[in-house]
Every structure is written in structure tokens, then in C-alpha cells.
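User: Hi! I'm working on a homework problem where we have to compare a predicted structure to a textbook description. Could you give me the structure for the chain below?
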Amino acid sequence: MIEFDKLIYLDVNKTGSTHVFDVLKKITGKKPVKVSRHSSITEVHPLRWKSGKFVFATIRNPWDWYVSLWSFGTNEDKSFYQNVAEAAGPDLTPRLYDHEHPSISFPLWMKSIHDPAFIDKMKGKTLATSHMAEVVGIYTYRFMRITTPFPSMFVRKWNLGSVDRAIAYEKRWAMYDEIYKSEVLDETLKTFVTEHGVELGFKENALKIVKRSEADHKNTSVRKLASYRDYYTDELIELVAKRDRLIVDLFGYQF
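Assistant: Happy to help. Predicted C-alpha cells:
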């Protein structure tokens, strides 16, 4: 989470969060009060939670999200890549991240990271210890860990044993006031500053700042194929539809 004087941004991984953070610093003209990247509010404020502040999050098409995570993965500074490499070992890891042959590598990677037995090899990682890989996809798990309270205790299989229970839990406990889709993020940010600029204390030229920032907003992952859709087989389309049904159902995404 990224907290400013009057707002909190729940920065879900790979949903335009770096761009939003940069824009927020510019339109507020202030340094954030607290920064705990990709964390729930309650991990920073276990007692006072939202504290009356405006809270928003960003989200992304789940099929596109997985392609982005895979495309970024070969940068060894990225923690998820390191976690996967730890579970896969030196022989399998290059096959999982062979960007020259995405039609072979991406399906193998997708099936691996959605296999609870593979996830269990990530020793000590919260995804493994929560056993949520038996219930939902990694994207849904990450989203719930950032947008609901006390995720280390409650975003676990014992509490959320099915996708339907996870959906009901998200509806009941989601900590955001609004959620913005990354596919239309630049336009949404313009509406955001227009509607909330006064109450949140943005600069008078906040709208101009957002418009100027559009040119700097780009997807930095390297993709060999033209569209995220080109990476998917029918089997993988269904895999995401099933495992990340929370994202699909709650936010109206389609392949």
C-alpha cells in the first residue's frame, strides 16, 4: 500500500502501479506518508485501518496479467521468478522462461504455477503455506492479499476453501472505495482527479499533470507475440477462467 495524507493506494502487482505511484507523487506534490509496496493496509495499520481516507486499487485483465508476469520473469531481480526457479530447479527453469518459443514455454509455465504440488516446493513462501493454490490462481491470491484485511491470517485455505467463498469474502471485506482498470487507466486517472481533486488536496494543475504523464505510461515487458491472446490455447483460457473466476466475475473481464 502507498499512503498519502488523504488517500491510500492499494498497489496490486502488475496493474500499472508504478505509473500510478509516480502520478500520485506529482499531483499531491508531497512525499507519501507510508510505503509498503504490494501490502494490505492492515499490515501497516493493524488498528486504525483506513482511517477515513479514500482508498483505491487498480486491476488488470487476468489473461493479460499472466503474460506480463511471465514476460518480466527472466529478470532475476524479480522475486516471483526467483521463487519459481527455486521450485523448478536449474534444468526446468530455462524451459519455463524460453521467450524464443512462447507457444511451448508459456503453457508449461502456466500449468506449473497453477499446480499446487509445484507451489508447495516454494518453501516458506506465503502462497505455499496458505495452501490457496489449491483454491485460486496466483493473481487472485495476490489481489486478495493486498485488498483484504489481515491476509496472512485469513487468506488461507482453511478460511476460503472454494472460489465461491473467496468471492463472498472479497465482497464483504474489500478495503477499496473504488477500483480502476489498467486497460483504461489514463482516462480513469483524468476522471479521478476531476472528481476527487478538491477533497484529496491535489494540485490545481493535477489534470494537466495526468495528461502529460500519459506519454510515459508504457508496458515495459518484452513480448514476442502481438497480443496476450496469442499466448493462449483453449485449455489455458479455461484454466484462467476457472482459477481466477473472482477477478473475472467481480470485474467483468473476458478473454
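For your comparison, note the following. The first strand starts at residue 2 and ends at 3. Strands lie at 2-3, 7-10, 34-35, 54-59, 178-181. Good luck with the assignment!
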